[in-house]
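Researcher: Structure prediction, please.
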Amino acid sequence: MKALIIYGTRYGTATGIAEEISKVLKEENVDVDLENAREKKELDVTSYDLVVVGSGIKMGKWTKATMNFLKKNKDALSKRKVALFVTCGAANEEKTIAEGQEKYLDNIAKENLINEPIATGLFGSVYDPNAKQGLIFKLVNRSIKKELEKQGKDPNKKHDYRNWDEIRAWTRNLTTK
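Model: Predicted structure follows.
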């Protein structure tokens, strides 16, 4: 099996997940190509059996490069196994998981794929109060800090919500579909 993992990231969280997916697939004897969508404008997907497309979510949106990839390759992807993943704050709390699944995975699949994906992965994000962010993040950051304080967590520290065991299990499952 040959797989392409193409991802979009703004702050590196999706990069870490894509790299882990690549590592696990290689352990499963899959030939893997790992590409950052921003750096790879032209990609021929016809030689791949499996295409994994992922993105970080910022302000409710996938990265522009991954969305362009999905739109540009819609027909070719209909002839391959496709899996989608996102890393976002909606996965950090039980009460927002269903909404995140629908908004960032189910709706994106309906709008941009001809066939249903073989799998979707909604993975946690990384909260880093010291990361360089724009004005909107600074405004949203106030509510995030309040929520962390309610949970008894230090809002001035970095919090990684990615569940690596879940990501690895999800990835291994891709080889059985």
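Model: The helical segments are 13-27, 64-72, 74-77, 94-112, 135-150, 164-174.
Researcher: Thanks, that helps.
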